[in-house]
Amino acid sequence: MNLKKISVLLGATALTFSLAACGGETADNANNANTANEGDDNTATETTGGDNYVFAYGSEPQNLLIPGNTNETGGGRIVDENYAGLVYYDAEGETHNDMAESIELEGDTTYKVTLKDGVKWADGTDVTAKDFVDAWNYTVENALLGAYFFEPIKGYEEGKPLEGLEVVDDKTFTIELAQPEADFPQRLGYSAYFPLHPSAYDDIDAYGENPISNGPYKLAEWNRNQDATIVPNEEYDGDRKPANDGVTFVFYAQQDAAYADLLSGNLDVLDAVPDSALANFEDELGDRAVNQPAAVFQSFTIGEKVDHFSGEEGKLRRAALSHAIDREEITKAIFEGTRTPATDFTSPVIPGHSDNLEDADVLTYDPEEAKRLWEEADAISPFEGEFTLSYNADGGHQAWVDAVTNSIRNTLGIEAVGNAYPDFKSLRDDVTNRTIEGAFRTGWQADYPSLGNFLGPLYGTGAGSNDSDYSNADFDLLLKQANAAPDIDAAIDEYNSAQKILLEDLPAIPLWYSNVTGGYSENVDNVVFSWKSLPVYNQITKK
Fold it and tell me: How far apart are CA 401 and CA 164, in angstroms?
């Protein structure tokens, strides 16, 4: 199995914290969920009874449920509930200890991690320091999607174990960084830093289909392209204990179908209102409607090696395309005030965001400048044929893709068209395999609340979600300086300096920031949407 696959969220997700997407049919009755592998003694697959199941919107995971290889929201929804890391983020994005009793800085670059007493896997065995260290090393040694997140640790090199990790005893390990990192403890709630059960390495494919949990839930059933059900993990004793009997994530082929099910009471929680309902959903749902800022960024990307988009010609064409898009009109006409035109590559809800960065005028609609830049690029090499923008048809993107391509076509006088893939996975597979042609939809749903999380994983050289294969040594250096800053304020200055380079190179074309637009049915209470746009599933109860 080749686990090195690249995906994105917006879902994010970032978002990423990858980008929200969807696919599948309505679920069967979750109360009838059976074990994923009948006869297996893995207690993570056992189903508990009850009538307090919550039906929530979801999407088919791109990959198996391995934390270090999950960076899109379909798998992320399940992984984040199935596992517990050293810390977790609450609805407001604040960091709290989960498996960790303490994370203490010793000197300038070494953290001592002590686990809580009595933390266990769903099969009753203890969660140990070695479970964390082995999982992190496995991610890096096998170059999984999350490997990039371990770059700060001393001795980081894909394919090799991390020199900076040392198991002291069952409850204690140390993390030595290559340099000081002001926000490193804050990052440890991201799924790449979750542990793996010792049995995972016996057959990683089988484990990814049916993982053993140490989080608030455990996987009960995964019906491919249909649904997945998680139920409470009785061995979990942290702050995220479920208030329900389980969650069934229903995979929809179309967001309109999901919204219709929400209105009819067949779906309990939706975090992706379709474009067709944006004008009316707040009236139709009343106080059950959700429309709030979230750490979600939308863009499209053109690979650095695509014909006419490399070198100086590529920089000119990307700037021309950016100036050719009327973001104000598109967000007003299509999104009914639920999107805000982008002024950078991050999100307004993240501390340190700026809406007046130098060179951000490249994100403004300027038809004359767009034409001038395109003609300058044509002088290098004439552009011929279609400009295509690929997207997943199951994610509610057609309207804005049509609007963006119309804006480009009308401004530049080229044939610009949308190219629909049937589902998110098929789109991402072609992006991952670098077989996609033209431009394609991208974005980010944050993994943790930091400007750096929107920059390094997407645009750092060799980063797991760097879909364009962008590489700029000056940008990488500024990221490194930001990570080594003595405090968060100093890091913000470096991150925003790094963004100036992105605004010149445009490895992706920023479009807009997303609000989470969702809602819930009359059948549930205690529904809260978090800073990263997803419901806090463990708090939801059925009436």
Answer: 45
